[in-house]
Write a structure and sequence with these properties.
The structure is a homodimer of 409-residue chains. By secondary structure, chain A is α+β, with helices and mostly antiparallel strands. Helix content of chain A is 33%, strand content 25%. Chain A folds into 2 domains: 272 residues, 4-Layer Sandwich (L-amino peptidase D-ALA esterase/amidase), CATH 3.60.70; 110 residues, Ubiquitin-like (UB roll) (Roll).
C-alpha cells in the first residue's frame, strides 16, 4: 500500500516553510550544530515523544508548547542532549525557545525545542543565544539541507525525504528530515524527525495520521534496543497548499495518511542503514503468530539479540540463534511448527534443519540487505521490524564516544 | 551472609561420587566432549531448567527422569546441543541415556542427560554409544577435572568449586562444575551446572535450597541477555556423609542452604568472568527502588544495554547511558532523585552530573572489577546483577562460530 507513493528525487520544503542550519560552536571545529525550521504561518501540529521515564528538558517543554497550539518554528541543537541537567536544563531549554522566538518575532510558546547529543552536560545556551539573529537571517526555502545536517550526531549521512500527492487538484508536498544512528529501539530512541507539509488538515486528522505512520515506521526499527531520553517526531501542516480540508475515511484522507507513512518509513529505513557500525539492513518478518502482540514480541526479540546480530555480521545463516530468541520472546510457540527463512530460503522447517544447502543460505545472508522470515504457523498475527547487524565497528565507536566528548572538560 | 562459607582450595568430589571425561569425537581433534558423573547410590535430586519455550530434547527427557526419582548419573556431551532436531533429537537423547544406563548397569530413567553446543545439527549419538563402556571404565573419585573440561563449549577455563561444612559432627562436601560463556541471561542461558553433595537431605529441603540458591546466583548474571534452549542446574545429594537429616528452619538447614548458595554464586561469578570477549566484571547494585521487581528491572535493563556495556569496555564512566537504561526499564523513577555511582564515586547525584572529577570516575571504571550503584531513592527495593562489558572480541567470536562449525558439512 504505502509503497505506491513516489518520492521526489530532490527533496524540497513544502510551500510556506523555510529552514537554515549553522554552526554555533557546541560541537566545535565549525560543524553545523543548530537548525531552525519555520512556517510562515502557525501550523497544525502533532507529535510523538519518547516513552522513556527520564525525559530531556526540551522534550518536556515541547510537550507543553505542542498542547497550547499555534506552533510556528522548531529550533534544534546537536552535540548536547540537555538531558539530566536538573533545573538548569529546564531553564536552558526555555532560554533556547526565547532566543528563537525573539529573533523571529514570535511567542516563546510557538517554538518547539529539541536537543540531541550527550546526556548530562550543561547546554552552553549562550552560544545559541549569540547566533539566534544570524540563523533567522539565514532562513530560506532551500535551507533544508543545512537544517538536516545541523541535527546530526553520530550519523554518517543526512536524511531527507519528500513525497508529493494531489488532493482536489492542489499539489501537496510532505517532507521529512531525521537523525539517529545509535540508541535506536522501537518506541523511538535517540531519533528526531521533523515532517513538514503544506496540506490543509485538521488537528484530529493529523494526530491520527501521525500516530499510525509512526507505528509502522519509527516504531518498527531497532539498532541496539536502547531508547533515549530525547526522541521526538513532529509533524507540522501549514495549509499553504490551499486544498479544501478532508475528513477521516475519505479518499483524500487515505492518500494523505499513506504519503505521510511512506515518508516516515523511508526515513526509518535510512536510520537503520546509517546505524552505528551497521553493515547489513535486515527485515524481520514474523508470520503465523497467535496474536499481533506475539508477532511483535518475536520480531523484537530476534532484532535485539546480540548473538543473532553478530551472526548476520559474519554472513552466517544461524537459524539456531533465531529460534532460541523466538523461544524466549514470551510468545506462544509450537517448536514443531516453526519455519525460519533467509531471503526466502528455508533454514529451518518444522523446528528443525531444512534441506537447503548451507552454501545457498550463506549466500542469502551475505547480501547487504535480506529478510529473515519467522513463520510460527499457529495463527494470523504478523509484524515486521527493520534492523541491522552488530559489528566490531559498533563496539569500537561506542566504547569511545563519551570519553572523547569529555576531553575538553 | 553466604560469603562466610569457605571454599576449598582444591575442589574434590563428595563421598560416593565418581566422574570422568573423555573424547568421543563430536568436537574432533581429540578434545574432551563427553562427561559422566555417577553416584554410588540413588541420589535425592532437584533441578531448575531453561524457561525458553523451545527446549532441547535432553532437557525434556531429563525433566521426566527427574520427576520419577532415583537418579544416579549424569551424562553430558558438548559440541552439539541436540536442540531443534525434531523426533530424531528425542530418540537420540534417549539413546544417550540408554547407552550410559547399559554401561553402568542402571535403568534408563536413572540417567540425567544434558547436551550443549550448536543448535539444529543432528547429534552423532553413535559416537557416544561407542565410548560408553570406556567412559564408565574411566570413572574415579578424582575424575572431576576431566568431567568439568568435557562439558565446556566456548569457555576458556573450566569451573569447579567445593565448599565444606559440618552438620552434627559429620563433614559434608558440596561441589559444583559449570559451563557457559555466552548466551547467558537471567533465568539461566546456555549454562549447565552440576552440583553434588554427600549430605543426607530430604527432597523437599533440597528443592527449596536449590531454588533459592539459583535465584541469587545463576539468575543474577547476564552476559548478552540471550537465554538458551538447554540450561540446566542439577543438584544431587547421595547422603554418603551420614549426617542425620535436618528440617527447614533448623541451624543445619540454614548452613546447608548457605553453602549451596555460596557454591552456586562462585560458579556464577566464574561464568561472568569467562564471558565471551569479557574484559570486565561488573556488579550492578540497585537500591531504593519502589519494589523488588522494579529493582530487578532496573538492574537487568542496565546489564543488557549494549551501549552501557560498550562504555565500560572503553573505561568510560558514562552515567548518561546508565540513566537512560534506568528510564526505559519500566520501573518507577523520579529523575531528580537518581544517584549513579561508579566504584562508590558519584557520577550523577539527584539526576544530574555530580562534582566528582572525571579522572577519578574514569579510574574507577578502568578497573577489571567494579560496582555500578543505581540508587533510585524512592523505596526499599534492591537487586544485584553480575555482568560483563561488550567488546569487539565478543562480536569477532560470535560472528564466526556457526560458520566454522559447519565447515565439515
Amino acid at each position: 500500500m504505502a509503497q505506491s507513493i513516489d518520492l521526489l528525487r530532490s527533496p524540497v520544503l513544502p510551500s510556506g516553510f523555510r529552514a537554515s542550519g549553522i554552526s554555533c560552536g557546541i560541537k566545535g571545529a565549525g560543524k553545523l550544530d543548530l537548525g531552525l525550521l519555520v512556517s510562515d504561518h502557525p501550523a497544525v501540529s502533532a507529535a510523538t515523544f519518547t516513552t522513556n521515564r527520564i525525559k530531556a528538558a526540551p522534550v518536556k517543554l515541547s510537550m507543553r508548547h505542542l498542547k497550547k497550539g499555534g506552533l510556528q518554528a522548531v529550533v534544534v541543537n546537536s552535540g548536547n542532549a540537555n538531558a539530566c541537567n536538573g533545573k538548569r536544563g529546564e531553564k536552558d531549554a526555555r532560554s533556547m525557545a526565547q532566543a528563537a522566538a525573539g529573533a523571529l518575532g514570535l511567542e516563546e510558546g510557538q517554538i518547539f525545542v529539541c536537543s540531541t547529543g550527550i546526556i548530562g552536560l550543561p547546554l552552553p545556551v549562550e552560544k545559541i543565544q549569540a547566533v539566534a539573529p544570524a540563523i533567522v537571517e539565514d532562513l530560506r526555502p532551500g535551507g533544508l539541507r543545512d537544517f538536516s545536517r545541523a541535527i546530526l550526531t553520530s550519523d554518517k549521512r543526512n536524511k531527507v525525504v519528500s513525497a508529493r500527492i494531489s488532493i482536489g487538484g492542489k499539489k501537496i508536498t510532505i517532507t521529512g528530515a531525521a537523525k539517529g544512528a545509535g540508541m535506536i529501539a522501537p518506541n523511538m530512541a535517540t531519533m528526531l524527525a521533523f515532517i513538514t507539509t503544506d496540506a490543509a488538515v485538521t488537528k484530529a486528522e493529523l494526530e491520527v495520521a501521525t500516530k499510525s505512520a509512526v507505528a509502522t515506521s519509527f516504531n518498527c526499527i531497532s539498532i541496539d534496543g536502547d531508547m533515549s531520553t530525547n526522541d521526538t517526531v513532529l509533524v507540522m501542516a501549514n495549509g499553504a497548499a490551499g486544498n479544501s480540508s478532508f475528513r477521516a475515511g475519505s479518499t483524500a484522507s487515505r492518500l494523505f495518511r499513506q504519503a505521510l507513512a511512506r515518508v516516515m518509513l523511508e526515513l526509518a529505513w535510512r536510520l537503520v542503514r546509517d546505524g552505528e557500525g551497521a553493515s547489513k539492513f535486515v527485515t524481520i518478518e514474523v508470520l503465523g503468530a497467535a496474536t499481533q502482540v506475539d508477532a511483535r514480541r518475536v520480531a523484537e526479540s530476534v532484532a535485539n539479540s546480540s548473538l543473532v546480530k553478530c551472526s548476520w555480521n559474519g554472513s552466517d545463516p544461524n537459524w539456531g540463534r533465531v529460534i532460541d530468541a523466538v523461544g524466549y520472546s514470551g510468545a506462544r510457540v509450537d517448536e514443531a511448527k516453526v519455519d525460519i527463512l533467509f531471503g526466502g530460503l528455508a533454514g529451518a522447517k518444522g523446528g528443525k534443519a531444512a534441506r537447503t544447502p548451507i552454501a545457498r543460505l550463506k549466500a542469502a545472508v551475505a547480501k547487504k540487505e535480506f529478510t529473515v522470515t519467522v513463520n510460527l504457523n499457529i495463527g494470523r498475527g504478523s509484524h515486521r521490524v527493520f534492523t541491522s547487524d552488530l559489528s566490531e565497528g559498533y563496539v569500537a565507536y561506542n566504547r569511545l564516544e563519551y570519553a572523547l566528548k569529555l576531553q575538553g572538560r
